[in-house]
Structure formats: C-alpha cells, structure tokens
Amino acid sequence: MNDIATYCSATYTWAQFTPAFILIGVAAVLLMADTFIKALPKRAYAVTAALSVLLVGCYTVSGEHTNAYSFLACLATGLSILVAYDYTKVSCASIAGGTSDEGTGEFYALPLVACAGILCLTQAADLIMIFVSLEVVTLTSYVLAGYFRRNQGSIEAGIKYLVLGAMSTGILVFGAAWYFGMTGTFILDSDVVIKTLSGSVASGTVAIGFLMSVALLFLGAFFKVGAAPMHVWIPDVYQGAPTPTTTFLAVASKTAGFALLCALVVPFRSKLLAIPGTHVADMLVNVFAVVAGATLLIGNLGALFQSNAKRLLGYSSIGQAGFILVFFLNLNPPDFLKISEHLSGPVEVLTYKYLLAYTLATVAAFFAIAMVRTQRGSEEISAFRGLGKTNPRTAFLIVVSFASLAGVPLTMGFMVKMASFFALVGAMQSWTYLVWLLPIMILTATAGFYYYFKIIRAMYWEKPQSGDKPLCVPFCTACVMTACAIALIVLGTWPLLTAFK
Amino acid sequence: MIQNLPWLFLVLPLLVAAIDWVIFHKCPKTAATLSILSALGTFALCIAYLTGWQTGTADIYTWMPTGSAATSLHLGLTMDELAMRMMLVVTGIGLLVHIFSIGYMKGDNSNLSRYFAGLSIFMFSMSTIVLADNLAMTFIGWEMVGFSSYLLIGHWFHKASAADAAKKAFITNRVGDFGFLLGILLTLGVFGTLTFDKMGTAAAGVAPCLLTVTVICLFCGAIGKSAQFPLHVWLPDAMEGPTPVSALIHAATMVAAGVYMMVRLQISMGTEVFTETARMVIATVGAITAVMAAIIATQQDDIKRVLAYSTLSQLGYMVMAVGLLAGEAAMFHLYTHAWFKALLFLGAGAVIVCCHHEQDIWKMGGLARRMPVTVLCFLMGTFALIAVPGFSGFFSKEAILDAAVVKHPTFFWIGVGVAVLTTFYMTRLCLVAFFGPARAHGAAEAREASPSMLLPLLALAVMAIISGYGFVADYLVPAKGFHAHGFHFGFTFYVSLGALVLGLLAAVVIYGFGKRSADPLSNNFISTALRKRLYIDAIYDKGLVGGLQQCGAHIIEFIDSALIRGLLVQGSAWLVRCIGVLLSRIQCGSLRAYSCVAGLGLLIIIVLIAL
C-alpha cells in the first residue's frame, strides 16, 4: 500500500505547507468572526487579511521552503485585498445595497483561501497535488468573480468563468489521466519522462499518447495564464468581475498559472530532451512558439480598440502572458547570451522577474481604476480625463505603471521585455525558423505603446470637464501606488547601473 | 579612487551645467560662480597632472558590451602629453573666457544661467574629445560640442539671424559628421578596434585604396568641425553668438578639434596609413581654405568677421600641415593660435562692448587713445597672428613653413601668400579701427574696459608673446616630447619676413593711419564678390538648399506620402485595425463561441503535436 502511494504521488513534509495552513486558519477565523461578531467593522477584516497574507509572504521568503512564486502570490493577494479595502463604497452598494457593509467580510477573507491554494501549488511535485491546489484557487475565484450580486456584470462574469473554468479543469484532468496511463505515475519528474520516452523509442512507437497528455496538461495551464486558445474568458470576466477580484485574477491567479506551467516544463529540461533534433524538444518549442505568437497577437491587437480600462487590462494581461511564454522557448539558455545577469537565467527565474514587473504595474493600474470608479463612477478610459491637471502627482504614478507595462526604458517593464526578446534570440540559435516570431513581438510591443498610452493621453491631453473635481486619493492607494512606482523605477534602473562596469 | 580622478575633467563641468540649468535657473550669479569654479577646478587639475602628479591611466568603463572586447564601446581617458597639454589650452582659455564673460554679459537681459550652463556643457564636451581614448567616445564629444555650439551661437535666439546661424552651424556639421561616422565604421572594419592605442600595426596589408577612403572619411569630420572648404560657411555666421563664445569655441578650441583629431589619428594609426592621395586631399583642402578665407577677410568690415575668416585661414594652415605629415608643427600652431586668437576675439569683444555693441570697423576709429590697454593687448595678438619675429605666432608659422619647404614647395609658396594677406587684413583692421578720428558716436564715447575683461586680456597677451619660446613651448605644446627649434636665419625666415613687410606696406599705403572714412578698395566687382563671400553661400542656398531640396522634396514627398504613409503607416495601421476589430468581434460575449474557440485551439495544438 505504502509502495503504491509513494510511486503514484510525491512525498511531502508538513513544513512545506505551513504558510498555506496559516492562511487557511486566518481565513477560517475571519469567516467565523464575520458570521458571529456583527459589531466589528468589515474593513478591519480587510486589514487583517492583507497584513496576514503579506506577513506570510515575508515568511515564505525567509522560511526553509523558499519559493519566489509563493512570495509573489502572497504579495499579489495582499495587494488585491488592499484594492478591496479602498473599494468599500462600491462593494457595499453592490453586495448588500446602499451603504451597509453587510456581507462584505467574506469578500476580504476568501482571497486568503485562494492564496493558500497557490502556496500548495508551488510545492506540488505530482499531478494530484496540482489538481487539488488548483481547484482550491479556481473555486474560490468563481465565488469572488460573482460576488457583487447586485451587479449584473459580476454575475455574468462569475457564470462565464465557472463554465469555461470547468472546461479547462476537465481538460487538465483528462491530461492527468493520460499521463498516468502512459507513465504509471502521477509524479512529474524528468526520470519518468525519459524512461517513458526511451521505452517508446526502443519499441519503435512514438509515444503519441504521452505527448497528448502533455498537451492537455499545458492547455489546462494556459487557461490559468490566459494564453491562446484558452484566453477567451479573460476580457469578459476581467471587465465584469469586481475590481479587487479582477486584480486578484490578473496578478495572483496568473502567478499560479505560471508556477504550474514551470512545474510542467521542468521535467523536460533534462539534457536529453532539450537537445535540438529530438522530437519532443521540437514539439515543445513549436507548441510554445505558436501559442506565444497567437497570444501576443490576440492580446495586444485586441487591446487596441478597447475603451473600458478593465477590459483593456484584460487584453493587456493576455499580451503580457505572450511575452512570458517566449521564455519557455529557451529551456536551456545558452551561455553566450549572458550579456547581463539580469537578462538571462533559467525559465522560472525570468518568468518570475517578468511577473514581478507585471504585478507591480498592474496592481497600481487597478488601484487607479478602482479610485476612478469610486469617485467618477466609470471604468471607461475617458474617465481618466484631465487627471494630469487635477491630480498631477497621482497621474505621474499612473504614468509610471503604464509606461512599465508598455516597456519604456528605465522601468522594470523594459528590462523584462528586453529579456523576452533575448530569450527568443537565444532560442533562434537552435531553432532558426523561430525568426517569424520576432516581427510579431516587435509589432505587438509597438501596439502596446499605443494602447497603454491611451490612458496617459486621456490624463494629459484631454481637458477636465467642468464638473470634474480633483480625485481624493485614499491613503492606502497613495502608499501602494507610490511604492509600486518606486519599485518599478529602481528595479528598472538598478540593473543598468550595475551592468555599467 | 585615484584612478577615477581624471574623470573629474568630464564630471565636474557636466554636473555644474546640470545644476546651473535645473537648480540655479533663476540665479545667474550663482550659476556663473559655479561655472567659473568648475573651470578653475579643471584647470587646476590639469596643471596638477602636467606637473607630474600621478599621471597615468584612468579606469576604463565598458559602456555598451557587444560580447567581444574589440567592438564593445568603452569610455576611457588618455592621459598622454598630447591630451593633457591640449587640456591645458582648453581649460586655460576656458577659464579666462568664463571670467571675461562676466564683464561682457553684464547688462544683458537674456538668461545668463543658460549661458553659463552652455559654457560648462561645452567644457565637458570638449574635454571628452580631447581625453577620449577611442573614436566612439570622440564622436560622442564631437556631437556634444556641436550641440553646445548650437546652444551658444543661438544664445540670443530671439534674433532671427542668431537662430539661423545656430541652425546653419548645426546642419553644416551634420554633413561632415556623416562622413566622420562612415570613417569610424570603416576604421572599425579596417583596424578591428576603435581604441587609439590598439590601432598601431593593425593596418598592415590593407589595400591603400581602402586606407585612403577611411582617412578621407574621417577627415570629413574635421572638414565640418574645423570649418574647412567646402563646409566653412557656418563659421563666419557663428559670429552671431556672444563674443566670448566665439573666442572659446569658434577660435581657440572647438574648431581646432578637427586638427587635434587628425593628429591623434596620425600618431595612433601611424603616418604610413595616410596614403599619398589622402595626404594631398588634406593638404589641398587646407591650402584652399587658407587662401580663400584670407582673400575674403581683406574686404570684411565687421571686426568679428575679419577675425572669423582669419581663423578659417589659420585652420587651413594647420590642416595643410597635417596633410604634409607635420603634425607637430600643426599642434604648435594650434596651440599658439589658440592663445592669440582668443586674445584677439576677447579684445574685439571689449572693443565692441565699449563702442555700444558696434561691430563695423568703419564706425570705430581713434580707439587707441581711449582704451589704450585693450588696444595694446589687441595689437600683441595681431603681431602674433601676422608673425612678427619674436611673437608666438612667428615660431609656429615658421615651423609649418619649414615643414612645407621640405615636403612640398607649392604649399610653401601658398603659405607665404596667405601670410602676406594675413598681414594685410590685420593691419587694415588695426589701422581703421584704432587710429585716426572716431567715425561714430559710440567710438567717441568709448572707455577702457572693466577689470574683469582686462585681466583675461592681459593674461592672454602675455601668452601671445611668450608661448612660442622654447622655455614655455617645450612644456606646454600638445605634442609628444615637443622640442621648439626656435628659428634660424635662413631661406624661410627671409621669405616670411618679406611677406610681413609686403603686407604691412600695402596696408599702410592703402589705408594710411586711419584717416580715410571709407574703404578705397570697395565698390568694384572684386570687392563685391569678396563681400558676398565669393557667392559660395548663395550657391549653397540656391543650388543645394533650393535645387536639391526642391528635387529631393518631390522624391521624398512620394516616398513619404505613397510608400511610408500610405502603404506602411496607414496600410499597416489598417491591417492591425482589421485584425484588432476581428479579435474584438470574437469576444462577443457568447459562451458558446468561447468554448468553440477554445475547442478549436485544442485541436490545433493536438495536431501540432501529432506532426
């Protein structure tokens, strides 16, 4: 019995999951308190939840089972709870109606559960753990997306997310079944992969079933990261879901997706498989190249004509995922490309850096959208009109975050986008034909400048209308946006300074 | 730390420029003080290094790594004698000009912080050229001096002529810089490096034709920056800038950068790289410039323009010497010329200020009595320029003529001819402006210049006299192991003395001692042609700017409107728009459509794997 268990699934220690248990515990306490102690103001839950998840984030960095993705997930979750903290006016009106904060407590506590799911995912080494922890994230997200029950858009978003998410989960489970069938284990490990493949080569059959399972697993991960063809849920759900939830989906859920994708490709990084000419390596590169190209085009070109800021950021999150997927073309980065240590490294490190830049900029952008929505009642780009005049400092912070998303030099967004281009150049050393991806990357990076600058244009070129008052920037929003802007600039210039010598 | 100290030459003025510009935008006094202190600081540092203090190399920084050491772009400083002594000229004259500017710009309503920031930026850029240890860095400085020159020529930009002159200088230099950039790329190709120290033997076995092209392309940069024919047109117009700027940038330092760069290349590449053809092209361009500018100078009435053409002519001299492979003589003349031409310009500046901003020499007169010290200093500069024996210019001109007589007698006689003309126009200038009665109200009221202007004049006058003697020149001339030979009574000496006397006599006979009120040589066909600068500017204006531009405009219009705007910009925008709209259409909100898209994608990926 014990043998079968170790063979089918990986072994874990309790310590690996300590942060996840802490978060679940805090969430449970908060949910109980929400039910039984009516006197507490609900915003206190938000503060507790955000603080605890950020502290757990610090713990994951310092703890024994260090994982950068855990930290990023905690950071992203904490910040999205803080978005909710400054969004109470809208959430009260959309949940209980009026100004009552009845029922908003869960809205702050549930992200902790999702975050716990992500923390488990980052420790996962077999498909069962992956499936379970992913479901924890996804099921919580369904609830959060449809949480504004007085808002039709939110309910629609919840339903769409549920249906499409269920489809993707089905695909993932189907892939896991094929994997188990072909390998006899759920463990994701290079030894297993090599054994299966060499066995099939020896017997003269191509392990088509194995490759199929891998493709299905990837498709499940593509759903989470928002890569084509599984991106279809993103625009509608991002636009319809409550802004704090959208923030969570855009940053924390995407982190989970890429953590999963990294876990899936790592077994293929052994020396045997990444040698060009091997069928499996070619197959992986082809799939990732096609998916990255399609994702880049769909995300960036689709964003061009959006007028809703949240929908725009939805397309933006697809487009940015495309740039991250390019890293996956280069599983074994060649040494000669190490122009700067900041621009090269293993795929999971580069992905993490890109996600960090994306998270900082996107969170700041969502804070701005939430603020504009609360005070001007609209999420359209035009609602940002004249902020350059009325709120020059805040407008500048928004400029920094959107400039980083677009990849303006001296921001972190530029550094990571450049790393993405370098990754493609590196992959072209082995697969020359990948050059077709380069014009697509250039075109879509250019398109990014167009649509991200629409917000900047609205802030500086469009005059404020007569009734527009300066926005009153909430304390928490001001702090986080400033911190994000500073981090983006420091992390964008520091590598340049250190690379100078 | 100590290895990084030489970087102060660049960092200090750049920092001061930034501070002047950003922080002390509205406090001209603080800005001026800072700029002067930075000039003083670099000057002191320069003296410290020249007196044997820790000479050596500065740390090299890799600016743009390309993977191979040869093609990576570095930032490094050369600290050899050529560079350090050139720095002394730059910082020394720079400092004096900074001080002079206080008096000259007094009462000027324009933004003085901007002016001093411009001066500091110039000091930074010029130091970059001088200290650069590779051509790429030279090019950076090259463009930066162009930029600072643009700022300073156009300092009074509300005057249309100043704004136009600034543009003209900038655009004309672009033409030369294009060639220079090609030359730099060719150098990288031929020598495999841009670092001066490493060019040494790299060119062995390269086709002479390729070397010729490389050298001439590099020389194009010098043609633009040192205002050689046919790109000389910007320098006379550049006199629209404040006079101290003309003294520093357009007489002493920046325009000499071309000569400095060519000499630096001769040293690092080796003279054998300069093929016969290349040498002849360089010497001929120099000779043409020297003669043409000297002829035009004889009929100029604006005191600064006379000096401007004289600068052109003297630069032609130096370039000619470079072409004759007499780099040491060229640098010697560059060095003496820097001192005495700066003196002449600052003297002219003092005269202009004291005559209420009158620049026409025919509206001056009798200044020798009213401002004797200034005029005396100016005369010292003149004597040096026209090579009166014993003055600095005499020694350096003698060095060039000595080299020419050995290498190529034709150029020797051209040099002598230019010397006659030089003496003639400078004597004319002095006689008309300083002697005889005052011919205008401003000249009649002229008073001696203020101390802040006199002090630099006196300092420069001393240098104009003594800088040619061995006891000074041996230590200060920017050339490796320079040794002044003095002069000897020989063929060259007698010929140049003859030229001097001839020029003096001609001027005195024609202009007397300032008694005439109009130029007796004017009002004829030749004079008109000279006053119109031999119609070269007009030809450029009509032929190049007009004709070429009109013709080019049609072609560019076609390319721009049909190809770029129509096909590329609007076409691609249209295409992108179509795709974008299509993609937005797919996101119609229908759950069935979404599942369908996802399902199709799934199939595609499975097919991809099966292949």
Main sheet specs of chain B: 2 strands, antiparallel
Indicate the low-confidence ranges of chain B by residue numbers. Answer: none
The helix content of chain B, as a percent range, equals: over 70%
Q: Assembly type of the shown chains?
A: heterodimer
Broad shape of chain A: globular
Structural class of chain A: mainly alpha
Q: Give the strand tally of chain B.
A: 2
Taken in chain order, the helices and strands of chain A follow as HHHHHHHHHHHHHHHHHHHH
Relative strand content of chain A? under 5%
The value of Rg of chain B in angstroms is 28 Å
The average pLDDT value of chain A, as a whole number, equals: 87
Secondary structural class of chain B:
mainly alpha
| Secondary structure: helix percent of chain A | over 70%
| N-C termini distance of chain B | 62 Å
Most extensive interface: pair and counts? Answer: A-B, 42 and 31 residues
Tell how many strands the DSSP assignment of chain A holds: 0
Q: Give the SSE string of chain B.
A: HHEEHHHHHHHHHHHHHHHHHHHHHH
Using brief descriptors, characterize the structure shown:
heterodimer; A: 501 residues; mainly alpha; 73% helix; B: 611 residues; 24 helices
